[in-house]
Amino acid sequence: EDRRADFIAAGVDVPRPAGGDDGAPNENVTAWLARIAPVIEQLLQGIPDDPTDRSEEQHARWLLANLLDWHRREAKATWWELFRLAAVSAEDLLDERAGLSGLVFVGAAGGTARAPIHRYSYPKQETALRGGEDLRNCGGEKLGSVSAISLEERTVDIKKRQDSAGLHPEAVFAHKVVGAEVIAKALLRISEYVVANGIQGPGPYRAARDLLLRRPPPIGDHSVREAGESTLDAALRLAEHLGEGVLPVQGPPGAGKTFTAAQMICALVRQGKTVGITANSHKVIRNLLDKVIEEADGLAVDLQCCQKADDDEEEQHRLTFARRSEDLIAAIGQNVHVGGGTAWLWSLPDAFEAVDVLFVDEAAQMALPNVLAVSQAAKTLVLVGDPQQLDQPIQGSHPDGCDVSALHHILDGAQTIPPDRGLFLDETWRLHPDICGFTSELFYAGELHPRQGLANQVIDGETRLSGAGLRWLPVVHNGNQSNSLEEAEAIADLVQEVIAADVSWTDRLGNVRPLTLDDILIIAPFNAQVFEIQKRLPGARVGTVDKFQGQEAPIAIYSTATSSPADAPRGMEFLYSLNRLNVATSRAKCVCVLVSSPMLFQAECRTPRQMQLANALCRYLELARPI
Description:
8-stranded parallel sheet, 21 helices, alpha/beta
């Protein structure tokens, strides 16, 4: 409040984070804390302070109590970020990924007289803007939103507000708080039930309570996977025997988690069950819905899907859209078998047990409290994802165990899910054995195996990338942080060499065809390096690790850009991230190339965690062939 008063005195519009669109529960913060305080007190009653002295049930109650205020803590961090960015100068915004600085007005790019769209150019800089973000002017005043942005051309189209139509900013930054009232209140309802009825036993919110307790899947006397059974057969068999509770499904790179989930959903619909799908984004939800429809067509399953959409969209084959949550909920069980929506849909009181089974896709990217909240929509919860790949960024400061995803909570530090606690998809359909060996050893406790035939994958021709497996292209440079001209030039030379040569690609089925530019993925941790590579290789598939999660190609090239550990702009935890290294290297079907400065392998580690991070990169070097 003190900081807010300072900004208001300076003429900056900073709304109070008290309710509705401002991001906190729909009452002031003091009233919300007063409302949850007695519930927290009752949940914590009799629980020892020392975690080692707690029973399983006591720890689950402690966790639930500390998750009750999770959304306010997250919103608090977001509001402080607004205060911080509003005080940053235009010059300093050049170094902020949430902003753009050095804007130069280019001209009109559409819109209306009251809400024009103006195009601006900007100099090279790291930015997280991708389109759709709400923008504030340097200083904090509301300006408009990002209509479009071209990272290649370095232009941004800003849709102005009526009161900002005549302003041409020197710098802008993005800031938005998405209200979480409905999710926070769903979590409160679960907590109130636990206070009144206990955390164990049958009854409502069974999936949430089992998740907190890390209970085994609800499959009775059946095994998660029988001897000699494929993971798909196991998944379909489990779909026939699911009771009330939680079934986790961990899918490493190329293991077919989307295909498996779609097949399970079709099997459940055949049984007469209704199914919900949720994830952190509409795009992820739509991807799984599209796969469900594709599999339903192949299996001749009669099903209809509906997705909650904010904008008007035209009906498609087996897929309709609902603008209002209540319309989708009412349609389920009538003319809709599979419904898709974010946590804001499935946390509504009216969505309580609206479907028989709820699938959470990319469950390693959805925070534990959000998964608990949406679990109220079904008696059975299926969590699909992989904690060893990219996870959800969390901004607030939370107690231990409250800052993880639902799948991280279940794995409890393990690399793979225990065989009695969920289904691990242990066979990749993508990775050549030489790449799979590295991926399995470093990230999946040696339990991931290549499908038969993947050893057939090979690059034929006279180039440095002929054959299959891990490669290392050392490039010496100094003082580079988020971009390296030297690495960009080396990658351009390598790609042009491969494309110019008479090179062919043989897939796992033995099909042979010419290798093209589209068969090469080029990945970098930083947008600045992406720009450098794109300038030299127009039309190439170049992007950050986040952009290419879920994609694949015969060849993947990973450019680290930074000269040394000391130059890493976001520290070792980002540049050496195990999750990012896993995603970047596992995009490759046949050949993976790491392009880096040799100094990255000479990290001076000061903590066990830093040793673990550096070890993964060094292990890659041990297994790779220099080129």
